Sequence to fold (260 residues):
Amino acid sequence: MESLNVSRADGVVTVTLNRPERKNALTGAMIEQLGSTFEEVARRAQDRVLVLTGSGGEFCSGADLSDADRPAIGQTSSALELVRRVGDVALSLHRLAKPTIAKVDGVAVGAGLGLAIGCDLVVASDRARFSMIFVRRALSPDCATSWLLPRLVGTAKAKELAFFGEVVDAETALRIGLVNRVVPQGDLDAAVAVWASKLAEGPALALTTAKALLDSAWSTSFADALEHEAACQSVNFAGADVREAMAAFLEKRDPRFGTP
Fold:
């Protein structure tokens, strides 16, 4: 997969969009490859954390409008098919039960923004830039941005970003809640590596259940949330990770969690 690189080390899977000459713009082939990669990571117990990034100092400039696989103007059916394929990728990323981190340098716009904020955590360099660029191409939001953005920044700010398509710099993105951290460009790799390593070494089942509980918060009643918490916690108490955590506490050492 020349346009998508996948590497693995110590439980961390790094997926790199690799079309630097096009600021990692997504082709139809890349969309298919991303979906199959997310599904593969979901199946592999040894893959504990996913990091999504781009090459050449950019994250992703959205869909490649020069791609031969893009819909022809006036072809409603082909546009519907392609956007549904993009949606399938966003859904695969959202359904991935393991922690995900977007490592963003340079631009993350359009579908690229959707992939970034579709991750659980977003770490950006101080030169990162974000945009709901769709309106500038006479398009409406896709790649789950219409669902994700209001949950991160609120409905009013999401509408502002979608209606005007303006570019948001890294510090503004941090202030409005679009990203978790902003670090100097030279520190980006190290900052993400620290978080990814901590997550990979953490209790996999507890992280999975925490993610599931938080992801369902917007569609769950208070009473149902309490019941879901109880169910998840009972599963955790029955697992080896809790026994290891308790032993480590009593022995005054760091826990050593294994695969689930």
